[in-house]
Amino acid sequence: MPSSNTAPNVVSKAPTSERIPELKFLRSGKVRDIYEIDGDRLLIVATDRISAFDCVLPNAIPHKGQVLTQISKFWFDRFSTLVENHLIAADMSEFSAELRGALPEESKSRLAGRSMLVRRAEVIPFECVVRGYLAGSGWKEYQQTGMICGHRLPEGLVESAKLPEPIFTPATKAEEGHDINVTIDVMAQALGEDLTTRLEEISLKIYREAAQYAETRGIIICDTKFEFGLRDGRLILVDEVLTPDSSRFWPRDSYAPGKPQPSFDKQFVRDYLETLDWDKRPPAPALPGEVIKVTSEKYLEAYRLLTGYDLPFAA
User: Fold this and answer.
1) How far apart are CA 85 and CA 244, in angstroms?
2) Average pLDDT for consecutive 10-residue bins of the chain (315 residues)?
3) How far is the C-alpha of 245 from the C-alpha of 302, rounded, in Å?
4) Which parts of 103-219 fold into alpha helices (H)?
5) Pairing relationship of beta strands 234-238 and 162-168 according to DSSP bridges
6) CATH class of domain segment(s) 10-120
7) How far apart are CA 46 and CA 82, in angstroms?
8) What values do phi and psi take at 197, rounded to 5?
9) Taking the domain 123-254, which CATH number applies?
10) Is 280 in a helix, a strand, or coil?
């Protein structure tokens, strides 16, 4: 059933890089702005910025940040008994009265649906990537070596093929450019065997349970990346979880191995940019209204399929 949410066929005026002046700004990533609330809490704001080929585009994608935040909240809640996480609240009504009182109505409106109040953690400097299907950099490496990050795979697999079992393929976290795939041995040398084993086990467990659930909702989770941190020595799940930005989501009904798959993410934007005479260096070109509209609809559809509801902030 098509989503009832619609996105305007115009350049988005949704939040991109505007700061919240009442809060103490710490830093920005490609999509998120982070504010310090106090020594133990942060506010993570997912803007509607979109990046491709390591460049932040000049356009925003309506409701993208709200989709990322609310899908993350959905998974944090679902897996709260499996692994501790950093989420305190992702709804303005659940923020402390002190925090709400410090914000004027305009700022509250800009933060609605796209902000997570979280506990601080010592972030582990590796992406915990789990792959269930053969795509992206894994497909490229397999074509060259028959392996992915030290995992020997069966011969004769085709692009987008389902792997015999999900595999754990960590990556180093890069401030600039692409993350770098590494073997589990490299991760263990940096973190120790015990912590690496814990990260592998919990990442695979979350992926398997999420993938099984998502299939019942019409989505194949091709692969995903998790981030973890340590808080008082405890391992906790942080950042975003199983969103269209951190995962490849494919429509189950149209899955056909042997070729690239359609997806519920920004691949539509990448495909458009590939048609342009652009060297993939800043400044990135502006997106036409139709590309913005379709991309927004893809994010909204991913939320609707996974949760069973339309995104309330998009009404």
Assistant:
1) 19
2) 36 56 93 94 96 91 96 97 96 89 92 96 97 96 96 97 98 74 96 98 98 98 97 96 96 97 89 94 95 95 96 79
3) 11
4) 105-111, 136-145, 184-191, 193-216
5) unpaired
6) alpha beta
7) 25
8) -65, -40
9) 3.30.470.20
10) coil
